[in-house]
Design a protein that fits this description.
Number of helices: 3
Strand content: 35-45%
CATH superfamily of the largest domain: IHF-like DNA-binding proteins
CATH class of the largest domain: Few Secondary Structures
CATH topology of the largest domain: HU Protein, Chain A
Number of domains: 2
Order of helices and strands: EEHHEEEHEEEEEEEEEE
Structural class: alpha+beta
Oligomer: single chain
């Protein structure tokens, strides 16, 4: 497969952790999310003798094997990352047992040497300060206590960040859940379900969505002050959140 030139565009955002006026953090401007179906199509474009349905099936089977093996205590090294199963939480006493209410099973991911090489060779282009608008730093599923990983239907989700206050008369304004699939179906949180509406934190009730992965997006005409801007600005959180 031909090696493509790579580039990361980043925008600068005010660093809320320091008082310095010219202190920024950088966030990568995502160009989208690559699914197995899209990967299959890219392989077909490079090697046309393969059918996309066949490749997609192989990729999906590969994912299933990896999930099962990780859940059975294996580490995975697939050329992109080394992934290890992990258990978090405090165990009190030598006879302590796993308790799903205080412990959690997850994974630790470490970039492979090939990925580290690819990242070291990519060109990073700093676009300067981002337009003043909402920024999501993290989300918290109140029901499960999990951060930036799950959402629970009809339960509270806390969204933390900057300039998040929902305000404005545009039909686009609000908190949206966007399906992380080809349909990209958008579901807006009803106004009464935005429980807390503050610049640094929103609390919303998750709509009755089907199982799957979703992105959360905040659209507002609010700024750092009380003045509303004419055109709404949006910020989509880069991590997909899962409803099981």
């Amino acid at each position: 497969m031909a090696k493509l030139a790579t580039k990361l565009n980043v925008s600068l955002y005010d660093n809320p952790l320091t008082p310095e006026k010219d202190d920024y953090t950088a966030k990568v401007q995502l160009n989208g999310t690559l699914t197995n179906e899209q990967i299959a199509n890219e392989i077909v474009a490079e090697r046309t003798e393969y059918r996309p349905e066949t490749i997609l099936n192989i990729l999906n089977i590969s994912d299933e094997i990896k999930r099962t093996r990780l859940a059975s205590g294996f580490a995975i090294n697939d050329g992109v990352a080394q992934i290890y199963p992990a258990v978090s939480g405090r165990f009190v006493g030598a006879a302590a047992q796993f308790n799903s209410e205080v412990h959690a099973v997850g994974v630790t991911m470490v970039a492979s040497s090939a990925l580290r090489t690819a990242l070291s060779e990519t060109k990073v282009v700093v676009q300067g300060p981002a337009p003043v608008g909402p920024v999501i730093n993290k989300v918290l599923d109140v029901y499960t206590g999990k951060e930036s990983s799950t959402i629970t239907v009809n339960k509270s989700l806390k969204i933390f960040g900057q300039r998040l206050r929902i305000a404005g008369d545009s039909a686009l304004v609000g908190v949206w859940f966007i399906a992380a699939n080809e349909s990209a179906t958008r579901t807006r949180v009803a106004d009464p379900d935005v429980v807390d509406n503050n610049p640094s934190q929103l609390t919303v009730t998750v709509p009755a969505l089907a199982a799957g992965d979703y992105y959360v997006e905040v659209v507002t005409q609010s700024t750092a002050g009380q003045t509303l801007i004419k055109e709404p600005r949006s910020y989509q959180y880069g991590l997909a959140l899962t409803i099981s």
